[in-house]
Write a structure and sequence with these properties.
single chain, alpha+beta
């Protein structure tokens, strides 16, 4: 089975994951790794034109790690994780999607400098 994409964690995403309890962190990493090999909307879901989320359900809690694609790299497709939340409501908060959009915008501006 071939890996579909690489994942890069921006500072805020890395900090979110590192502050999780060990078992939760392991489950989040496991689901991210699994989503790199299989197409499963329960693990990696498109939220809008640009923003996706890695999804982990663990101990009756919903963890979300927002991300976007950077397909400008020739050798490998890259997914950039922006930040994460512990989801408290059914619907993904719009302000979190907007935050991911803003981070994405700055990422590409700084990348092209």
């Amino acid at each position: 089975m071939k890996e579909r994409f690489n994942v890069e964690f921006l500072e805020e995403a890395e900090s979110f994951i590192n502050n999780l309890e060990e078992k939760t962190r392991e489950k989040v990493y496991y689901n991210i790794k699994k989503s790199q090999f299989i197409n499963d909307r329960e693990l990696f879901k498109k939220l809008n034109e640009n923003i996706w989320e890695f999804r982990t359900q663990f101990n009756s809690k919903a963890y979300r790690l927002f991300s976007f694609w950077d397909s400008t790299i020739e050798q490998k497709t890259l997914v950039v994780a922006t930040h994460g939340i512990l989801k408290k409501i059914q619907k993904t908060p719009k302000k979190e999607i907007e935050k991911a959009e803003e981070i994405r915008k700055h990422y590409f501006i700084n990348k092209n400098k």
